[in-house]
Design goal:
With 212 residues, this protein is of the alpha/beta class. It has helices at 34-51, 67-77, 96-99, 102-119, 144-158, 174-191, 197-200; strands at residues 2-10, 23-31, 82-90, 129-134, 163-167, 204-210.
Length: 212
């Protein structure tokens, strides 16, 4: 089995709200054995529970965790047989029309990222492929149309059938690992902070900018 896990960082807000990010990033993690990711997440969460009895839910969030936890998780990912691809968007480069069609923009970015993964043959096409996108409470762009869109793109461009799923990080623990990775890459562009990015840089096989 081949797995692709997707998560994003930043937002697609285009008004002048100071809380809106300057960049939007979608990151893909691909791996053949997702049990390795699940085991890592469970181990780190278990260690945290021993220190903080009140912790619950089984979900690790990069934004909320302490630096020591972030670095520990990212460092342990280096020992797993996985790869990362990311695409980042400088929102100031987006045409006005697309700013008002956020779901189209989101699908477009995801399409480019997924298409690059298959074009570069980073996934074993001879095995069943599962793509899992992270669903957030604040995410308005992931829905059944997204599933159909990605399935059709891959089927038409690469002649492959793929199982597309949308899950929360609590439902699919592997997504929690992508959350930390995407957040680390986001910090690089949004705040010029390379502290966490440097840890996982060697795992990144491609890092592209949209609208150069």
């Amino acid at each position: 089995m081949s797995y692709i896990f997707l998560d994003e960082s930043g937002d697609l807000g285009f008004d002048n709200n100071k809380n809106n990010s300057k960049y939007f990033i979608i990151t893909a993690l691909f791996i053949s054995d997702k049990k390795l990711l699940e085991k890592l997440i469970k181990k780190i969460h278990s260690a945290l529970r021993k220190k903080i009895k009140a912790i619950g839910g089984g979900v690790l969030h990069s934004v909320k965790e302490k630096p020591i936890t972030r670095k520990r998780l990212l460092t342990k990912l280096l020992k797993l047989n996985l790869n990362i691809m990311t695409i980042y968007l400088d929102k100031s480069k987006v045409y006005t029309d697309l700013q008002n069609e956020k779901h189209i923009l989101y699908n477009y970015i995801t399409n480019i990222l997924v298409d690059r993964i298959f074009s570069k043959r980073l996934i074993d096409k001879n095995k069943p492929i599962v793509l899992v996108a992270s669903k957030r409470e604040t995410n308005k762009f992931l829905n059944l149309n997204f599933e159909d869109y990605i399935k059709n793109i891959i089927k038409n461009n690469h002649k492959l059938d793929i199982d597309v799923q949308i899950k929360t990080p609590s439902e699919e623990k592997s997504l929690q690992a992508v959350d930390f990775i995407s957040w680390s890459i986001f910090r690089k562009y949004e705040f010029n902070d390379l502290e966490y990015y440097k840890i996982i840089k060697k795992l990144i096989v491609e890092e592209n900018k949209l609208y150069k």
